Amino acid sequence: MKVFHSSYISVETPDINHSRDFLDFGKGFYLTTLYDQAVKYAQRFKRRKRQAWLSTYELEFNPEEWKIHRFDSYNREWLQFVMNCRSGNDNSDYDLVIGGIANDEVIQTIERYFAGEISENDALGLLKFEKPNNQYCIRSQRMLDECLKHKSSEEL
Questions:
Q1: Distance (Å, rounded) from C-alpha 81 to C-alpha 67?
Q2: pLDDT tens digit string along 40-49?
Q3: At a CB cut-off of 8 Å and minimum separation 6, what does 115 contact?
Q4: Alpha-carbon 110 to chain mean position
Q5: How far apart are CA 82 and CA 151, in angstroms?
Q6: What mean pLDDT is predicted for residues 43-59?
Q7: Antiparallel, parallel or unpaired: β 53-59 and 68-70
Q8: Whose CB has fewer CB within 10 Å in the chain, the N or C terminal residue?
Q9: Distance set, CA 65 to CA 36, 61, 94 (Å)
C-alpha cells in the first residue's frame, strides 16, 4: 500500500533512533495512507519557516509475521494506549500500531483528560463525534527495513 510521511527533510532511509518519544503510539516512524492529511501536516513546517517534504513509500507486510495492533475508533482502549505512550508508560512490543491520530480537533479533548479536567467518560463522549484520520506507527527497525520501501520525496 502507498503511505506518506511529512518532515522538514526528505527521509529516504527512516530509522527508529531519530523518532521522538512520547507520541500518540510511542516512539516510531509515523505514516498515513491519506495524501491530504500528510500534506496538511507538512504545512506546519512551512509555518515555522522550514522546508516541507512529503516522502512516499510502499508498505508491504504479512500480518501473520508481525505484532500489530489496530484501533478502529477513538475508544477507551485507544485513549488509554495514547495516554500510556504520551506519558512514557507504554510497555507494549508492537511492531506496528494503526489507528486514529490525535489531530487538532482531538488533542484538546485528550489534553483536558490528561490534565484531569474531564473524566474518561466525558472524553470518550466528545471523541465519539470525531471521525478518525489514520496513522501507521512502525515501531521496530526490523519492520522498517524489511517492509517499507522509499519511492519518492518532493519538496512542498
A1: 16
A2: 989 989 999 9
A3: none
A4: 15
A5: 30
A6: 95
A7: unpaired
A8: N
A9: 30, 8, 12
Position 105 pLDDT exceeds 80: no
Q: How far apart are CA 18 and CA 10, in angstroms?
A: 13
Contact, 38 vs 153, CB < 8 A?
no
- Of the pLDDT bands very low, low, confident and very high (cuts 50, 70, 90), residue 74 is confident
Asked if residues 37 and 66 have their Cβ atoms less than 8 Å apart, the reply is: no
Q: Give residue 106's pLDDT band: very low, low, confident or very high (50, 70, 90).
A: confident
CB of 52 within 8 A of CB of 156?
A: yes
Average pLDDT score over residue span 39-62: 94
Q: Which three cell numbers mark 14? A: 527512516
